[in-house]
Each structure stands twice: as C-alpha cells, then as structure tokens.
Amino acid sequence: MSRPAVGLVWAQAHDAAGRPVIGAGGVMPWHLPEDLAHFRRVTTGHPVLMGRVTWDSLPPRFRPLPGRRNVVVTRQEDWLPDDAAHPGAPGTGVVVASSVEEGLALASAAAEESGSEQVWVMGGAQVYAATLPLADRCVVTEIDLEVDGDAFAPALAAGPGGDWELGGVGPDAPGAPDGGWQTSAAGVRFRMLTYERRR
Ligand SMILES: NC(=O)c1ccc[n+]([C@@H]2O[C@H](COP(=O)([O-])OP(=O)(O)OC[C@H]3O[C@@H](n4cnc5c(N)ncnc54)[C@H](OP(=O)(O)O)[C@@H]3O)[C@@H](O)[C@H]2O)c1
C-alpha cells in the first residue's frame, strides 16, 4: 500500500500588510462556525497531526478531537496530554511524538490501521512550515477579514511554474460562481480552496 496522502488544512485571514494570519496570542482571532464544520467534515475519520501549542489552544472539552487519532508533536520529553477524561474509542485518542517525522509516521500508521488514505496536518505555523514540503494537498479557508496576528500560513506558489494548482470539486472548484465566496451567518465572507501539488 502506498503511504497515505498528507494534507494541510487551515483557515487564514490577512493583516494590514497582506500576510496570511492563522493565529494571534495562541488562538484563532475569529469565530466562524462554518469553517469549524468544514474542518470537522474534512478531517473526521482521518488522523490529525498538530503542534503542542495548537493542542493547548483547543478547549479541553474538545480534545482529543473525537473520531480522529490525534498526534501531538513536542520536544518536551515529559509532556503528557490532559486526555484522561476522554480516552477515546479504538483508533482515536491522542499519542505524542518527539519529532514531525515521528508524528507523521504515527499518523500514517493510524491511517493504514483504520483504512484511511489521508492524514491531515492541522497546525500551527511551525508544523505547517515543517510539513509543507511533504504535503500532497492543502485545504485553505480564506476569510475576508483584516486582523493582527503572530502566526502565519506558509506561502503557496500557485502561479505558472509554481508547486501548487487549484483543484477541488463543487463550490471549491476553480471557476465556481463568485470565485467560491460565501457569506457566513455573522456576515463575514469566506471561501474554501483546495490546492493540489503539481506532478
Ligand atoms: N487558522 C488555523 O487554521 C490554525 C490552525 C492551527 C493553529 N492555529 C494557530 O496557530 C498558532 C500556533 O502555531 P505555532 O506555530 O505557535 O505552534 P504549533 O505549530 O501549534 O506548535 C509548536 C510546538 O510544536 C512542537 N514542535 C514544533 N516543531 C517540532 C519538531 N520539529 N519536533 C518536535 N516538536 C515540535 C513544539 O512544542 P514544545 O514547545 O512543547 O516543544 C513547539 O513549541 C495558534 O495561534 C493557533 O491558534 C491556527
């Protein structure tokens, strides 16, 4: 069996300089339920890999994220996740890795065990940067909002000759009406894009 595909999934707004903001002060500086539902749809049933800071940013009652093996990377040898209250069903729950490589290997093994062909890297900035060279696809929610931030998405070269091209189906497809932009219940514009690595 070939290795499971590696996908990165994130949501980004932008700062005044146009940089793609994904976080501020350890959290996401917006509330967009439509994106949380999209994230759940995309990742449920597949292992997720995250940095320890992103784990800490999840509300304790939501971690480990259910229905997914959660793999957390940390350099702290004695770090333990506070998951005692949520042991999880087989194939879910949380495991700890001491490197991104080990984390991806654990996530890939969990995917193969559960019959999934995909692992999802769910942040944050450090872990996206470390895994982008290995990624097959990136699923990006663009939020039309200017915010200050201190964590940024990696840059994707999607122009001619770049590593990435827009793919996706349905409302995510290139050429979707209005460029795929939708308006959230809270009035914020957003769209979901899928980039596939050019082969
Ligand atoms: N908008 C989105 O879609 C989205 C998604 C996820 C996260 N975020 C945001 O992103 C921000 C967090 O990003 P971040 O870059 O600060 O942190 P992060 O990538 O979530 O986690 C960084 C931590 O992961 C561990 N780590 C990183 N590289 C490692 C390696 N090579 N080997 C072993 N461990 C490694 C270290 O943990 P130790 O310090 O424990 O050693 C490091 O401090 C937050 O604001 C969060 O809300 C946004």
UniProtKB/TrEMBL annotation:
Q: Please tell me whether the keyword Plastid is annotated for this protein.
A: no
InterPro entries named in the record: DHFR (IPR012259), DHFR-like_dom_sf (IPR024072), DHFR_CS (IPR017925), DHFR_dom (IPR001796)
Query: Which keywords annotate this record?
Result: NADP, One-carbon metabolism, Oxidoreductase
Pathway recorded for this protein: Cofactor biosynthesis; tetrahydrofolate biosynthesis; 5,6,7,8-tetrahydrofolate from 7,8-dihydrofolate: step 1/1
Identify the enzyme class: oxidoreductase
Q: In this protein, which residues make up the domain named DHFR?
A: 5-197
Q: What is its EC number?
A: 1.5.1.3
For molecular function, the Gene Ontology terms on record are: dihydrofolate reductase activity
Which SUPFAM superfamilies does the entry link to?
Answer: Dihydrofolate reductase-like (SSF53597)
Q: Tell me yes or no: is Lipoprotein among this UniProt entry's keywords.
A: no
> Which family does the similarity line name?
Belongs to the dihydrofolate reductase family.
Instruction: State the name under which the record lists this protein.
Output: dihydrofolate reductase
| Species this protein is from | Oerskovia enterophila
- Protein encoded by which gene: folA
